[in-house]
Specification:
The chain has about 100 residues and is mainly α. It is built from three helices and no strands. About 75% of the residues lie in helices and about 0% in strands.
Length: about 100
């Protein structure tokens, strides 16, 4: 596509802010939902909506979604699992 990756310090700070907000959202969701439900809702809110926007802007190479979807689901699950462990919330079994 010939696009340069934006690697300015401000872009890195914005990704850090995005990560913090994502962790807060997972923390809030985990208070009301199981680990599985938190993973799915968190993934829908963060990644799916982000990909819809970037796909609409025509800057998303769709061939990467074959790897990005399972990896982002795993990332969301691991983040929710870590939050669950750190907050001492009892684990709910995955069906």
């Amino acid at each position: 596509m010939g696009l340069d990756f934006p690697d300015a310090p401000l872009n890195g700070a914005m990704w850090g802010l995005w990560s913090l907000l994502f962790a807060i959202a997972l923390f809030v969701l985990l208070k009301k939902f199981s680990l599985r439900d938190t993973t799915l809702l968190g993934w829908l809110v963060a990644f799916l909506m982000m990909w819809v926007v970037t796909g609409n802007l025509a800057v998303l190479p769709f061939r990467i979604l074959y790897l990005a979807v399972p990896l982002s689901l795993m990332e969301t699950f691991v983040a929710a699992w870590i939050i669950q462990r750190l907050t001492g919330r009892p684990a709910s079994p995955l069906p």
